[in-house]
Structure formats: structure tokens, C-alpha cells
Design brief:
Blueprint: H1 4-7, E1 26-28, E2 34-37, E3 45-49, E4 55-59, E5 66-71, E6 80-86, E7 91-97, E8 102-103, E9 117-119, E10 126-132, E11 137-142, E12 147-151, E13 156-160, E14 169-174, E15 179-184, E16 188-193, E17 198-203, E18 208-213, E19 219-224, E20 230-233, E21 239-242, E22 250-255, E23 261-266, E24 271-275, H2 278-288
Antiparallel strand pairs: 1-2, 2-3, 3-4, 5-6, 6-7, 7-8, 7-9, 10-11, 11-12, 12-13, 14-15, 15-16, 16-17, 18-19, 19-20, 20-21, 22-23, 23-24
């Protein structure tokens, strides 16, 4: 067997030993040509070509290790916002140039790119973040304390105070409709409006590792250590579907562009693809109730 294709895509740079690798450490650009990775000891995050595995850019700006990354939806041309969160309790907002395939605007400049905004207000290491260009908002969570809503210019708008026992946010997903889903430790979920109103909450018997919202913001998909993908109505957490369990925990998830295929990365190292049909479940759910 020819293994040349296997090795060329390995990224061998080591992340800081204190970092727990999870889905928040990686972002892939909309054209799938570049992957951004954080967690390095030198307080940078880095850009690699997915085709070759080669390092194409190193971005500095934080005072401590970068702990999470997120990207917004893309504009025409592939431009988007990238947000980095750090152990220094701040977030930095960056601009990804789809034309030049770099963070920043100037491909010829030897200078390091400057962030567009600095987002402050957390007291602890930032562990999760979501950014929505359409709303112009960044929602972030630190190791403990409320999640914060900032504008993309860096203004702090409000804190999202979770219900009792919702003290340790771990995963965030925000839709352009203004729903903000937050997963807290010990199986607790909250749905906030962007204005800070708590709309729904639930508790599930799984240590969730990955969440995502469908493109219309109506559906929430969750997966975790139990190896079970579950689909929920985002607005009220009504359960729409449970897939048969997998033989390993789920670590990461993403949806294909047409919203018909769900891809999960498993704790075993395998990748599993599921057919997914949000429309059918909504139709069945409406008919049932």
C-alpha cells in the first residue's frame, strides 16, 4: 500500500502539555484548504495547509496559551472573522482574508497581523467561544462564571447568567436567529436569547463533547462520551431523534454544507457519517403534537 498520502497530512507540532485537546482547538476555513490550531506553548495559534500539512502562518497576540478558536460564517470571497480565546482571560478578534489565505490584510508585510478587537471581562481562562458575523456578536465562556456577549468591535454588551448549578460553561453555539445554546458541565444545557433572556434549559445523562446548530438555527445536535448522537428542537429542547449508539465516545461533529450528512469524530480515532433529515423530524414532530 502507498502511504505517502497518509504522512503528508500529519501536523507534528506539539501543543502545550497542559492543554486538553478538544474540538475548540481547531478551525477549518470555509474552502477546507486551511486548518487553524491553537494550544502551543509560545502563545500563538497557527495556520496549516490541509493539502500538504505545511505551516503557512503563526499568529501572536495573547499573553498566555491560546485555548480555543472559532470562526464566523464566511462572506463572499471567503473572508471571515476568527476569534481566539486564551488562558490570559481575553479574546482577540482577527480577520481572515479568503483571497490571501492569511490572518490580516497584507500578504507582503513581514509584520505580525494585529487583532481587530480585544474582548475583556472574563476572570478565568477562556474555554469556549462562538462568533456570528451576521449579528456582529461574540459569545464566550470561561472556566467558571457567566458567559459574556461582546460586539465584534470589542464592547461588552451583557453577561448570560446561567441557572443554578450552571457555573462551568464548556461549549457554545450561536445562530444568526439569535439563539445561544450553552452546554455546562454535568449535562446541563441552556438556551438564551441574544438579549440575555433564558428561554429553555435541560439536563441530560451524558458528558457532552460536541454540539452544533443546523444552519437555520432550529435544530441542536449533541454528542458525547455515551457515543449517542441526539437531535433536539433548539427553542425548547424537545427531543426529535436519537441515533443508535456508537461503540466509542463522540469528540467532534460537523454538518455537510447541504445539511444532509453529519460527520462525527470518535474517541477511537474513527470517523462516522450519518444521514440527517431535519425537515422530516420537524414534520413528524408537528404531526405528533
Amino acid at each position: 500500500a502507498n502511504n505517502s498520502g497518509v504522512n503528508k497530512r500529519q501536523i507534528t507540532d506539539l501543543v502545550d502539555q497542559s492543554i486538553q485537546i478538544n474540538a475548540h482547538c481547531f478551525v477549518v476555513t470555509a474552502d477546507n484548504r486551511y486548518i487553524l490550531i491553537c494550544g502551543f506553548w509560545d502563545k500563538s495559534f497557527r495556520v496549516y495547509s490541509t493539502e500538504t500539512g505545511k505551516l503557512t502562518q503563526i499568529v501572536f497576540g495573547h499573553w498566555d496559551v491560546v485555548t480555543c478558536l472559532a470562526r464566523s460564517e464566511s462572506y463572499i470571497g471567503g473572508d471571515c472573522y476568527i476569534v481566539s480565546g486564551s488562558r490570559d482571560a481575553t479574546l482577540l478578534l482577527w480577520y481572515w482574508s479568503g483571497r490571501h489565505h492569511i490572518i490580516g490584510d497584507n500578504p507582503n508585510s513581514s509584520d505580525y497581523p494585529a487583532p481587530r478587537a480585544v474582548l475583556t471581562g472574563h476572570d478565568h481562562e477562556v474555554v469556549c467561544v462562538s462568533v456570528c458575523a451576521e449579528l456582529g456578536l461574540v459569545i464566550s465562556g470561561a472556566k467558571e462564571g457567566p458567559c459574556l456577549v461582546h460586539t465584534i468591535t470589542g464592547d461588552l454588551l451583557r453577561a448570560l447568567e446561567g441557572p443554578e448549578n450552571c457555573l462551568f460553561p464548556r461549549l457554545i453555539s450561536v445562530s444568526s436567529e439569535g439563539h445561544c445554546i450553552i452546554y455546562y458541565e454535568r449535562g446541563r444545557f441552556s438556551n438564551f436569547s441574544i438579549n440575555g433572556k433564558l428561554l429553555a434549559q435541560m439536563e441530560i445523562n451524558d458528558s457532552t463533547r460536541a454540539i452544533l446548530l443546523s444552519s437555520d438555527g432550529q435544530n441542536l445536535v449533541t454528542g458525547g462520551d455515551n457515543g449517542v448522537v441526539e437531535v433536539w428542537q433548539a427553542c425548547d429542547f424537545k427531543q426529535l431523534y436519537i441515533y443508535p449508539g456508537c461503540d466509542a465516545g463522540i469528540r467532534a461533529m460537523d454538518l455537510s454544507h447541504d445539511q444532509r450528512t453529519l460527520i462525527t469524530g470518535m474517541a477511537s480515532g474513527s470517523i462516522v457519517a450519518f444521514n440527517i433529515d431535519f425537515n422530516r423530524w420537524h414534520y413528524e414532530h408537528q404531526n405528533r403534537y
